[in-house]
Design goal:
Length: 463
């Protein structure tokens, strides 16, 4: 059976501001929380107002100055969509200002205009693993209800500015990540209690719903989605206890989708909060705000995991405490490779929500070798992505409504987890090393031409 992708399927790639832009204090930008986790999101927080230090993300791959070149390369591959994020601290350096930073707004105008020249549709994330650091220092991050208003003001500002340039929006990147790295997600220390973290998440969910309402009011033709870390868990065995453990594990991240797609807290969370003595401050206005639901579901997918009632089998993975699947191989960074998992996840989410889905992150981080002639033969990346896209095609044949696919990442960038450039994802090689050396020259990898042919054929070259 040949794979049939929809005629208007959006093909592209995904980036985040703090992993590509660099220029971390240029043109009025303020410090973000991402600027303060200089060794990656699992590292200790560095107050860079107090400590004079440098970080690989300060320059990253210098997209801030090289975006025309990079966007031209994306267009050469045939992109019809590019997911980027706006750095909140470029628009409001401290987060609580009344007036935005015009230089920050002007930068994204130029980026969107460059994309329009190449007929590339922007998909824009409002907060991708960063927020103004001053909101953490001054207000205590998302633990403070005041951040709902600050985020809403930020969202309204960029909606007004870019309403004629952007029609696909996302609120928070991998919003369920806050449960595992609360500083990255909600600006809270790791020592925070479950109650404090869930309260901060609640404020974020309310802010997300308010942004969705603003989008619907201000841009009726635009679409706004959420973004989940698709951390699907299988039972390790057929033991009923393991099946139930997997069910509970999946509830841990699906609840973010349930609230944003259905407009209220699911009953299983009521039980969870009761069992863990978690009491949240949820106002009647909050409940009204949450009723404004997203238009589509977006998610990242890199790997699946297993769940078991035996806690001794858990291992620390990239983001979660993982139980390895004995039937799967792993990447160089220990991420288990499961192409069928993306088909399973697409079906799971579509059956649950009956809303369009958008795969906004999927890719393979690996060490790439530059040959003597300058070529980069990344067949392992081609195989990984081919196998996953075949399963996306199968899900579409299953009847799942999939809007598009933006790979992570189309160009090498600084990895979020450990701030390495040597963990390369791109179809485009960037000459920069973990120690900051390199020319920043861009080079097309073998996968560049492979993805170009996939897009050109609308998936027909997949096998």
């Amino acid at each position: 059976m040949s794979i049939q992708f929809p005629n208007h399927f959006l093909w592209g790639g995904a980036l985040s501001a703090n992993q590509v832009e660099g220029a971390y204090l240029t043109d009025g930008k303020g410090l973000s929380t991402a600027d303060c986790t200089i060794a990656g999101i699992f590292s200790d927080v560095v107050d860079r107002n107090a400590v004079d230090t440098t970080a690989i993300k300060d320059v990253a791959i210098d997209f801030y100055h090289r975006y025309p070149e990079d966007i031209a390369l994306f267009a050469e591959m045939g992109f019809s969509c590019l997911r980027i994020s706006i750095a909140w601290s470029r628009i409001f350096p401290n987060g609580d200002e009344k007036q935005p930073n015009e230089q920050g707004l002007a930068f994204y105008d130029k980026v969107f205009d460059e994309m329009a020249k190449h007929n590339i549709e922007p998909l824009v994330t409002l907060s991708h693993y960063e927020m103004p650091y001053e909101l953490v220092k001054k207000y205590g991050g998302w633990g403070n209800r005041a951040l709902i208003e600050f985020f809403t003001h930020y969202a309204k500002t960029v909606f007004e500015r870019y309403q004629n340039k952007v029609k696909y929006w996302l609120t928070f990147n991998e919003i369920n990540m806050s449960l595992h790295e609360p500083f990255t997600g909600v600006g809270l220390p790791r020592s925070s209690t479950k109650e404090q973290i869930y309260q901060a998440i609640h404020h974020q969910l309310v802010a997300s719903s308010r942004a969705v309402k603003l989008c619907h009011q201000m841009m009726p033709k635009a679409k706004m989605g959420n973004m989940l870390l698709g951390a699907v868990a299988y039972p390790l065995t057929s033991k009923p206890e393991d099946v139930w453990a997997a069910h509970q594990e999946n509830h841990g991240w699906l609840y973010f989708g349930d609230v944003q797609a259905r407009g209220y807290y699911p009953s299983y969370m009521t039980r969870y909060f009761k069992d863990n003595n978690i009491k949240l401050d949820i106002t009647q206005q909050d409940r009204e705000d949450l009723k404004e639901t997203i238009d589509f579901i977006s998610f990242s997918y890199y790997m699946s995991c297993c769940a078991t009632a035996d806690d001794s089998l858990r291992k620390k993975g990239n983001i979660l405490d993982m139980v390895p699947n004995p039937h799967l191989k792993a990447s160089e960074w220990g991420w288990q490779i499961d192409p069928v998992g993306i088909r399973y996840l697409l079906n799971l989410l579509y059956e649950r929500y009956q809303k369009p889905l958008f795969i906004v992150e999927n890719g393979l981080g690996a060490n790439d070798n530059v040959e003597a002639d300058g070529s980069i033969n990344d067949d392992y990346r081609i195989n990984y992505m081919n196998d996953h896209l075949v399963q996306v095609g199968e899900a579409i044949e299953d009847g799942v409504d999939v809007l598009g696919y933006t790979s992570w990442a189309p160009i090498d960038l600084v990895s979020a987890s450990n701030a390495q450039i040597s963990k390369r994802y791109g179809f485009i090689y960037v000459d920069r090393n973990d120690d900051g050396s390199g020319t920043l020259k861009r080079t097309r990898k073998k996968s560049f031409y492979w993805y170009q042919s996939v897009i050109r054929s609308n998936g027909q070259t997949l096998k």
